[in-house]
Amino acid sequence: MDGDTLFPIGDLARRTGLTVKTIRFYSDTGIVPPTDRSPAGYRLYDVGALTRLDLVRTLRDLGLDLGIIRQLLDREVSVPEVAAAHADALEVQIRTLRLRRAVLRAVAKRGSSPEEMDLMHKLAKLSDNERRRLITDFIDDTFGGLDANADFVNMMRSAMPELPDDPEPEQVDAWVELAELTQDPDFRAAVRRMAQYQAAERAQSDHTGLHHDLTETVRDSVGRAIDAGIAPASAEAAPVIDALTARYAQTFSRADDADLRRWLLTRLEVAGDPRAERYWHLLAVINGWPVPPSLAPVFTWFTQALRAGTGQPSRVE
């Protein structure tokens, strides 16, 4: 191709695939000005203009606006600078689109009303910091000002919802439910009562922290009783309860007597709100953690068995 060849606008349109109207617009705005004009006043373009038009088309296909394109062509900014900034912008757009897709799939699955869909979208598009702040505010409101179980409070503060950039509909659903749960005044009041109970226990010198091993013992012992078909109010439940109260007495350095059983029953009832377990289940779904099996049947059996007992260990005459 001769570098001195000049093309009328029609030829330039055929070579670039752009319309005459588009090329004329680029000319009028100074992005690709004509190289010269014919004696009749028609615009003429050289090979450089052809190359410039090809670049403009590529940049437009990548989503860059004309202001940025003009800066690039005029060498006011570099290509790497623009590419990096645009890639960051596209990343945000992609993340937003993925989130919208997840919300729409969740709406389709649960048959949400327009109001529910609006709420889901507003909650789902919160930033990571905004999601953490919502949960942190819930913890501050329910545990604030109380000397509750420090290990438990630290565990709650360390477990924040981390909705992925490309969430599954189930994760969006779980986040919306968790957000609603933490704003429920009745649930907040229940957690506040639990915090007050913990503070009262600590005032009585209970600084034993968390008791994962004890929970595992209850799960195993009561689980076997449930599997064996033992009713919580039956005589066969008594040895199971005896073994468990003995373990609690050892852990908390208390006598294994009627007072211990009444204390333990209160402890189980305060912590027995099923919504508390639901809170942790939802966090697991949101964060992609393994969802542990529910302990509600185990502790329901344990509570019923304690309530059905006389208060004294069965081995005491």
How would you sum up this structure, described in words?
By secondary structure, the chain is mainly alpha-helical. It is 67% helix and 2% strand. The protein has a 3-stranded antiparallel beta sheet with strand order 1-3-2. The longest helix is centred in the N-terminal third of the chain and has 32 residues, at 79-110.
Write the layout of secondary structure elements.
Elements: E1 7-8, H1 9-16, H2 20-28, E2 36-37, E3 43-45, H3 47-61, H4 66-73, H5 79-110, H6 114-124, H7 128-143, H8 150-158, H9 169-182, H10 185-203, H11 212-227, H12 238-252, H13 258-270, H14 274-287, H15 296-308
Antiparallel strand pairs: 1-3, 2-3
Helix pairs in contact: 5-6, 5-9, 6-9, 7-10, 9-14, 11-12, 11-15, 13-15
Q: Show unreliable segments.
A: none
| Average pLDDT rating | 86
Distance between the termini: 111 Å
What is the N-to-C order of secondary-structure elements (H for helix, E for strand)?
A: EHHEEHHHHHHHHHHHHH
The proportion of residues forming helix, as a percent range, comes to: 55-70%
The main β sheet shows up as: 3 strands, antiparallel
- The share of residues in extended strands comes to under 5%
Shape: rod-shaped
Radius of gyration: 34 Å
In DSSP terms (H or I, runs of 4 or more residues), the helix count works out at 15
Backbone structural class: mainly alpha
Strand order in space, largest sheet: 1-3-2
Q: What's the total number of strands?
A: 3
